[in-house]
Amino acid sequence: MVISIFEIKKEDIKLGFKSAGIREYRADQLWQSIYVDLSSSFDEIKTLPLEAVNYLKSNHSFSPLRLVVKKKSKDKSTDKYLWKLHDNNLIETVLMRYDEDGHRRRRRTVCISSQVGCALDCKFCATGQQGFTRQLTVGEIVSQVIEIKKELIIEEGRSFNNENNLNIVFMGMGEPLANYSRTLEAVKRLNDQKGLNIGARNITISTVGLVPKILDLAKEKIQVNLAVSIHAPDDETRSQTVPINNTYPIGDLIQACKKYIEITNRKVFFEYVLLHGQNDSKSHAEKLGKLLKPLLCHLNLIPVNPTLKSDYKRSNSDKINAFREIITKYNIPSTIRMEKGIDINAGCGQLKSEFLNL
Asked: E-assigned strands of 136-224?
């Protein structure tokens, strides 16, 4: 199989060029062309001599993604992309637009996938219902951002380089920390100042609670955001919907988050999907408030979204607001997640659901 150029580190590109008798500095020009200029093919790269272009075309493919279908939400704020990979597996990526509203800046968020499917089987998540197929490569992860960035530049005429208006969230298909080394390499590629140049603080890595990997991430000395999908305040409730809790129970998870905060001096974002009659009572809110109060954190409350194989119903607005009021009593900052793309199955927990029908 011919390997995509987006899988190759710059140092290895230089070695390949050197072995082919091509000056090593041409690798820097190639890097500029594919990660800054966002060229769409080797033939578009005008800074390279013909011998370098021919070498690349003979030894590497270009983008590892092929767009199958793109859907736009009715309010035009959200796009969902279905990509085909070299082995015919499919993944999804979501672009969300947040336009200026009061004090909020106009910004764009790209929700990217890290695996084909997921092995962790969270009961309200369409990706978990799909099961696990394989890990995504670094190139497959990074190319999701590159392809959407190309569209944004055409659509908006903005470079999105070194600006605080493009956010990347590893909240698509898969558990990013279960694909740890590739996720970290993808973050470095996204953050590269001579490449995509997306600030580390604009990148969020989510996890359902892989305790050893949270501790590993704390030692990486990168200023990304960590989002932990907690979804319940006690082991009995959490284990019903998040099976990994049987391996890494809440006590261990909270201790890992405390350690993460101590090492990084950065807050942890907790994600809490509200399920009617399951985890949305005042008692649950009180328990959660006591659990999170000692931590430097922010809580995101997310009304559950429908999926094909899930019967969970979302909490009504009164219950959600009552839940949040209790959380506020414990001085924990919280947000009720703004809905985006529900009508095209692009919301939290909905990715891959359409693939089940293909």
From this structure: 166-170, 203-207
In the numeric block, which tokens belong to residue 230?
A: 């907690």
Please write the tens of the pLDDT for every residue from 82-122.
999 999 999 999 999 887 654 445 789 999 999 999 999 99
C-alpha–C-alpha distance, residues 283 and 301, integer Å: 16
Nearest in space to 120 (alpha carbons), one of 62, 164, 178, 163: 178
Q: Is 348 a catalytic residue?
A: yes
C-alpha span between 66 and 140 (Å, rounded): 11
Q: Which of 111, 125, 348, 354 is catalytic?
A: 348
Closest C-alpha to 176, from 205, 213, 199, 140: 205
Range of lowest pLDDT (13-22, 100-109, 192-201, 237-246): 100-109
Q: Which of 92, 147, 175, 354 is catalytic?
A: 92
Crossing angle, helix 25-35 and helix 50-59, to 10 degrees?
Answer: 70
pTM of the complete model: 0.92
Rg (CA), the chain: 21
For 23, phi and psi rounded to 5 degrees?
-55, 135
CA–CA distance, 321 with 79 (Å, rounded to integer): 29
Domains along the sequence of the chain with CATH: 3-61 (1.10.150.530), 66-357 (3.20.20.70)
Are 244 and 210 spatial neighbours (Cβ–Cβ below 8 Å)? yes
190-226 in b/e form (b: 16+ CB < 10 A) is bbbeebbbbbeebbbbbbbbbbebbeebbeeeeebbb
| Residue 92 falls in the annotated catalytic set | yes
Handedness of CA 180, 112, 348, 224 (dihedral sign): positive
